[in-house]
Amino acid sequence: MRALTWQGKRDVRVENVPDPRIEEPTDAVIRITSTGLCGSDLHLYEVLTPFMTPGDILGHEPMGIVEEVGAAVPDLQVGDRVVVPFQIACGNCWMCLTGLPTQCETTQVSAEGMGAALFGYTRLYGAVPGAQAEYLRVPQAQYGPIKVPEGPSDDRFVYLSDVLPTAWQAVAYAGVPQGGSVAVLGLGPIGDMACRIAQVRGAGRVFGVDLVPERLNRARERGVETFDLRSFDDEKELVAAIRDQTDGRGPDAVIDAVGTEAHGSAAARMVQNASALLPRKLSGPMAERFSVDRLAALHTAIELVRRGGTISISGVYGGMADPMPMLTLFDKQIQMRMGQANVRRWSDEIIPYLTDEDPLGVDDFATHRVPLDEAPRAYDMFQKKQDGAVKVLIKP
């Protein structure tokens, strides 16, 4: 089959690789009909290269048609149309039953000290072949795949694999009171969708912060009060501008939908880039032990949120420690929640919003749709924020 493979920093290629097959009774194989290019894929493209191996198949937002089913997968049949969560979980362990499939005790990558295995996402998460390919082997298929009805296009459901539950969890963790206010830092796919979900869940005011004109315009058209980073000389001016809209206190909650891709943090970026250039035997341990994250967005969130408010982190961070303003966090009595989205925890709550009325605007959420052979160009475009790219769907 054809699949998108990682070959090095900013070097991804479509190659011929072996077809996936049933390896365990709990496996299924699906034919991919649509798969997303995620902002966290860009971390593999540049920041997390020490944890990648040439030939790794990328992608973790799969939707497709079931082609084969293992003997221990009773609820799937060949021909079913399914969305597959980006994490691989069993559904039966204590963590899964507690609503934390990202911490699944069956698939935890314990050798790396990490949680549940993920599709297409570094050796830290099991180096499981990903979904930007023609076919995908799905482990733990007795639990993961979500069957969706025939009729509506893939664009109605593909975001259940990652975007929708990640944004939904970000808003849920933010704990925005009814009629309250929330600021979303970063208006890429997750930040954009988090704004929409906050609105339908009853937030009174939603503020969106970014520096890409197309992303700001897109959010503004849906009623988000937008702030262009380029209009401010520094973080303090931005914080003051949003506080002016919230009686001087700051918003009730802030969602960091940026993560380690944040602008600023030049020293951290230098360390990340340096580790990526080292031989793999050295770069991985260096990144794990000494790498610092680019925490510009998180520091802004800490400064911006009102006293007693909540910060919800959905943006991916991949390094170790950077100086954190613990005195400020303690003094302001800030609550923080974060983590990979627990897809099956939220999917039943989300599906009713995928109705004919389309309140979340999923039908036209994608800005670009490309065939698999054009995926390398799509990565480059998305990483450089060119051509108004917010969400790219790949159609194998």
State the gist of this model:
This protein is of the alpha/beta class and about 400 residues long.
Structure description:
- By secondary structure, the chain is α/β, with parallel strands linked by helices.
- The chain is 27% helix and 19% strand.
- The chain has helices at 41-47, 94-97, 163-174, 189-200, 213-220, 235-243, 266-277, 280-290, 296-304, 326-331, 343-350, 375-383, and strands at 2-8, 11-16, 28-37, 56-57, 62-69, 81-83, 135-138, 146-147, 181-185, 205-210, 225-228, 253-256, 310-313, 335-338, 368-371, 392-395.
- Strands 3, 5, 6, 7, 8, 15 and 16 form a 7-stranded mixed β-sheet that branches. A 6-stranded parallel β-sheet has the order 11-10-9-12-13-14, sandwiched between helices. It has a 3-stranded antiparallel β-sheet with strand order 2-1-4, covered by helices on one side.
- Helix 10 (326-331) links the parallel strand 13 (310-313) and strand 14.
- Helix 3 (163-174) packs across helix 4, helix 3 (163-174) crosses helix 11 and helix 7 runs antiparallel to helix 8 (280-290).
- It is globular.
- The termini are close together.
